[in-house]
Amino acid sequence: MRLYRAAEAAMRRRTRDQMHMGENDLLALRFLLRAKQEHGVVSPTELGAYLGIKTSSVTVMIDRLEDAGHVVRRPSPVDRRRIVVETTEYADAEVRKTLTDMHSRMIGATAGIEPEIAAGIVSFLDRMREAVDEIEA
């Protein structure tokens, strides 16, 4: 597990470097892309809650992502006094270009695993996630 986590951390570092963004920037972009696929829009408040950062930090991050062409601010479709943050087509293309090959290799690593073994692996990973989630801050 330690070796895998170290390899994954190194991969994330390379991805951030390639995309010229920090950890929270990349996490925000992935969250916004997923939200766009699932339900559409995210407010800066929701983004800050997801990342666990202050409103002022969210504003600075959105400014940075907007300057880089990754996100746009728009009026909320339900309350024009508020804004929402959405990814641009450029951001979607950039993430796909950067992550598609890595995702293909990860999927390829699972090819040929028998269903019973796959179920055991999923169970193990679920138990590991639960164990880590139970650690108090």
Radius of gyration: 18 Å
CATH architecture: Orthogonal Bundle
**Outline:** globular
Low-confidence stretches: none
Distance between the amino and carboxyl termini = 22 Å
Task: Give me the number of helical elements.
Answer: 6
The major pleated sheet works out as: 2 strands, antiparallel
CATH H level, superfamily name:
Winged helix-like DNA-binding domain superfamily/Winged helix DNA-binding domain
Run of helices and strands: HHHHEEHH
| CATH topology tier name | Arc Repressor Mutant, subunit A
Strand runs, count: 2
Structural class: mainly alpha
Portion of residues within helices: over 70%
- For the record, what CATH class applies? Mainly Alpha
Work out the strand percent: 5-15%
Total domains: 1
Order of the strands making up the biggest sheet: 1-2
What does this molecule look like?
The chain has 137 residues and is mostly helical. It has a single domain (2-133), classed as Winged helix-like DNA-binding domain superfamily/Winged helix DNA-binding domain (Arc Repressor Mutant, subunit A), CATH 1.10.10. 70% of the residues lie in helices and 7% in strands. The protein has 6 helices and 2 strands; from the N terminus they run H-H-H-H-E-E-H-H. The protein has helices at residues 2-19, 23-38, 44-51, 55-67, 89-110, 115-133, and strands at residues 71-75, 83-87. A two-stranded antiparallel sheet has the order 1-2. Helix 3 crosses helix 4. The longest helix is centred in the C-terminal third of the chain and has 22 residues, at 89-110. 13% of the residues are buried. The model has no long low-confidence stretch (mean pLDDT 89).
